[in-house]
Specification:
- Helix content is about 0%, strand content about 10%.
- It contains no helices and three strands.
Length: about 70
């Protein structure tokens, strides 16, 4: 079972969830905004390291943390 630091009702993570699921509203200290900003919020959906299949026809509701490998500029 994977252990993580997510607290129910709180979206801030204490560290990247490498290989784990991330929701658009979550964020962590590894957050790095994409070069092509979509909204200016500090959330996984806007993070360069999160894979929400944004280059595909249908994006995912829940992404995967790929930190430290950049997924989208």
């Amino acid at each position: 079972m994977e252990m993580h630091t997510y607290v129910e009702g709180e979206r801030g993570l204490q560290e990247p969830r490498i290989g784990g699921s991330v929701w658009p509203e979550q964020w962590c200290p590894g957050f790095t905004a994409r070069l092509a900003r979509l909204g200016g919020m500090q959330a996984c959906w806007f993070c360069r390291y999160a894979d929400f299949h944004l280059r595909e026809r249908v994006a995912l509701d829940v992404g995967v943390c790929c930190w430290p490998k950049v997924q989208v500029d």
